[in-house]
Amino acid sequence: MQEVPNKSRNFAAQEGFSLMELAVVCAIISIVAALALASFARRDEGGRFLQDVAARVRDRRAAAIRINALTEPTLLENYRQPPISIDFGNLATTAPLVTEGANHTTFNTPAQGGTGTWSFVYQGTPLSIPAGWRIAASASQLAPIPVISLGTPTTVINFTADGRLDPSSLPTATPNTNPNVESPFPAIYLTDGRTARAVAVHPSGLVELWQYDEAANAWRGFGNRTIVSP
User: Fold this and answer.
1) Can you tell me the distance from the alpha carbon of 225 to that of 133, in angstroms, rounded to the nearest whole number?
2) Count of structural domains, the chain
3) Nearest to 134 by CA among 201, 195, 218
4) Is residue 108 part of a domain?
5) Measured distance CA(165)–CA(151) in Å, rounded
6) Residue 191 structural domain
7) What predicted TM-score, i.e. pTM, was given to this entire model?
8) For residue range 145-202, what is the model confidence (pLDDT) as tens digits?
């Protein structure tokens, strides 16, 4: 008698994956998930870094206004007043300024007129740069990522008594009286070599946060705006 093949047994043997195939699939999924999580972690870290830098710039601007309000008017009238600065190339200067109390930042008058000086008193923790990130002080340090059009790299921001940018912080540019044409502004660039963030400070002293869009190869500012050079 001829044996009839067991079709159900053969079909069952052809169904599903082997343990080796399942192990390979699981390994691939794990690698992809790990890469995705690492990418999200870098983005979150970059976002926190950006917010920290911006907060310190805003705090220094507020301190400049506050310190000048506490200084005797006659001192500021009789002597040229230096700006209040924050230098991200010297992280010790990024700690909050003490503006009140027994030991606070004070204005020192020069011996024979001229420009006075500030005796800065810091309190709190300076800026901490996350591992893998850096502050790019120039376009070459930011490369291959381009700078923002009109956004000049800097590490030092100087504020006047009314919270505006001191002329020493403004990039060199041709005088512009057209309200529809934006003037160059200083920007503090943060990068990990793959992506970048930037804190721009406009002449009024207001801060704008920027993020580099790798997919579009473009910088996005407030309201997702971009800048086209005039």
Assistant:
1) 25
2) 1
3) 195
4) yes
5) 14
6) 45-172+181-224
7) 0.78
8) 999 999 999 999 999 989 999 999 999 877 767 777 788 999 999 999 999 999 999 9
